[in-house]
Amino acid sequence: MIEREIVHSTTASKRIFSVMQDFVQFLVLSVRILLELIIALVQSLLPLKQKDISREVVLITGTGHGIGRELALHYAAWGSTVVCVDIDERNNMETVQKVKRLNRGAVHSFSCDVSKREEVLSLAERVKGEVGPVSVLVNNVGIMPTHPLAQHSAEEIHRVFDVNVFSQFWTIQAFLGQMKEHNRGHIVCLSSIAGLVGLSNLVPYCATKYAVRGMMEALHEELREGPYKDLIKVTTIFPYMTNTGLCKYPKVKFPSLLGLLDPKDVAKRIVEAHRSDCLEVTIPSYLLHINNWTRLLPSTCGILLKDYIDSGVESDLK
Fold first, then answer.
1. Are the beta carbons of 291 and 197 closer than 8 angstroms?
2. Cα distance between residue 195 and residue 281, in whole Å
3. Distance between CA atoms of 94 and 90, rounded to whole angstroms?
4. pTM over the 0.90 mark
5. Can you tell me the distance from the alpha carbon of 294 to that of 228, in angstroms, rounded to the nearest whole number?
6. 283 — phi, psi (to 5°)?
7. What are the tens digits of pLDDT across the range 275-284?
8. What end-to-end distance do the CA atoms of the chain give, in Å?
9. Is 46:73 a contact under the CB 8 Å cutoff?
């Protein structure tokens, strides 16, 4: 009986000690979170320190036009070696010629359907052999059919996911190994404001952009918990509607505040986010704060705000 009481007392003491230990750890964690918040607020008031990218080998998908073309020009202007990848060889070569006129970083053109895994794996070997190991991957390629879900064909939905989501899985799998071999790298993936907020006529597109957001958040955790924590960075970009031709019938209530973005400005902001090692960036930047704040409120409040802003896309089946 006495032995049982001693054992019971010892077990109870251990439980109390464990609870106290967890409580102390929680207090320490709370202080750290508060300090991180203060640091973040101070840093938001200071200019961001931007790293040198002049020696990087930057592979960009979807460089045949729009944001991809502007990204190629911006990275080359900083002295990076740029690898332009697009399924459209003609438009891709136009981008290459524009980059060459800058007389800055070297530029290379490769044709590839990045929605096909075997082509991407082959591309990775070709680029490594002809250019060198890729140190920066920018997943930019995307398509955006805009009409009600009921009017999307099965083939169309599959294609949106193949291009917008699976291509990013294939390129990351193909080039992450090269980054790990050299203990350095950066992966930049384009999601969209449609990856933060659901919008009419964009159900499959929104689903793909939410998928990219989840993929990148999980990838960040894998890298953060492993040996490449401070060696390989990730950045997810959430641009607002951009004037690239994807938005055939944009709906904008306040054009002076939320008009279509210029691809040049978007590309510039993406490069800045990369050079600043930002984890997540919306373009414009204030949209991330508005979204985070709105998510703390009842869902009806978010709907009221969305109805007031009244921006999105009309059906392209007119």
1. yes
2. 12
3. 6
4. no
5. 34
6. -125, 110
7. 999 999 999 9
8. 85
9. no
pLDDT of residue 162: 98
pLDDT the model gives residue 8: 57
Name the residue type at position 117: R
| 260-293 core/surface letters (b: 16 or more CB in 10 A; e: else) | ebebeebbbbbbebbbeebebbbbbeebbebbee
What is the DSSP secondary-structure string of the chain? Answer: -HHHHHHHHHHHHHHHHHHHHHHHHHHHHHHHHHHHHHHHHHHHTSPPP----TT-EEEEE-TTSHHHHHHHHHHHHTT-EEEEEES-HHHHHHHHHHHHTT-SS-EEEEE--TTSHHHHHHHHHHHHHHT---SEEEE-------S-GGG--HHHHHHHHIIIIIHHHHHHHHHHHHHHHTT-EEEEEE--GGGTS--TT-HHHHHHHHHHHHHHHHHHHHHHHSTTTTTEEEEEEEE--BTTTT-SSEE-S-HHHHPPBPHHHHHHHHHHHHHTT-SEEEESTHHHHHHHHHHTS-HHHHHHHHHHH--EE--S--
Burial group, residue 191, by CB count within 10 angstroms (0-12, 13-18, 19+):
buried
Cis peptide, bond prior to residue 133, ω within 30 of zero: no
Catalytic residues: 205
- Predicted confidence (pLDDT) per residue in 29-86, tens digit: 788 877 776 766 676 676 778 999 999 999 999 999 999 999 999 999 999 999 999 9
